[in-house]
Amino acid sequence: MSLSIPENLEKVRQLISLYEERYGRIDKAVQLIAVSKTHGADKVKTAFEAGQFHFGENYLQEALDKIDALQDLPLHWHFIGPIQSNKTRPIAESFDWVHSVDRLKIAQRLNDQRPSTLPPLNIMLQVNISNEDSKAGVSIDELEALASAVEALPRLVLSGLMAIPEASNDVNTQRNNFRRLREARDRLLASGLHQCQHLSMGMSNDFEAAIAEGATMIRIGTDIFGPREAR
Ligand SMILES: *Cc1c(COP(=O)(O)O)cnc(C)c1O
Questions:
Q1: Three-state secondary structure string covering 135-185
Q2: How far apart are CA 100 and CA 123, in angstroms?
Q3: pLDDT tens track for 46-76
């Protein structure tokens, strides 16, 4: 029998603490983003009532419906899915964080469309760390130029980097990929991009490796909400 959402959340939180301890993460900085894509607003509310405030969504229209239905709750919404350039306005208007920016055109549009009544939008640049097949994400080679250009946009805060590495069940492979993202983040910090601190990395299958390599945000769907529903 499957556990309830509150029980799953408790279990994930305990694992986060355990891994922080195990890998010397005395900063205790790992923040849990509950990825609620395909799951209804009722489930988001159940998670909120169990103390979860940060939610991640991939599909824009589905996300906007949930944000609207739950607007009375003090939730923080993270957009983590692919971004089409003609869909940036509702993202700029309705989200607090965007993890999946991988080109300047998207950043410029989010900057121009961020309402002046809201604080600057937190941006994470998605990096293609395991190369080749996956098209999403800026390459490591092009990251620094993109980061400098995004840093200059006044309505955005360049807050960190995000990656979705190739799926692997090998912990060493997982850690090597996550380490590459951390090293890229460290280079940006050293180059003077002081707010680029976050590492959004780790999902249900690999968050132990991500925490070992310095993740500050892990994005967990299945381990909290169970298998995804058909869209
Ligand atoms: C779906 C998704 C997740 C959550 O994945 P799980 O394996 O269900 O934990 C995290 N990040 C992104 C970008 C996703 O699309």
A1: CCCECHHHHHHHHHHHHCCCCEEEEEEECCCCCCCCHHHHHHHHHHHHHHH
A2: 8
A3: 999 999 999 999 999 999 999 999 999 999 9
**Span from the CA of 136 to the centroid of ligand 1 (angstroms):** 14
Question: Number of structural domains, the chain?
Answer: 1
Indicate whether 25 belongs to any domain: yes
The whole domain housing 59 covers 5-225
Q: Residue 115: its pLDDT value, please?
A: 98
- Most ligand 1 atoms within 8 A of CB, residue of 80, 124, 126, 228 to mutate: 80
Q: Considering the domain boundaries, does residue 231 fall inside one?
A: no
Residues lining ligand 1, Cβ inside 6 A:
35, 37, 58, 80, 164, 203-205, 219-223
**What is the CATH number for 167?**
3.20.20.10
pLDDT digits (tens, 9 = 90+) for 128-170: 998 666 678 999 999 999 999 999 999 999 999 999 998 899 9
Query: Which one has a higher pLDDT value, 231 or 191?
Result: 191
pTM for this model (two decimals): 0.96
The residue whose CA has the least distance to atom 12 of ligand 1 is 80
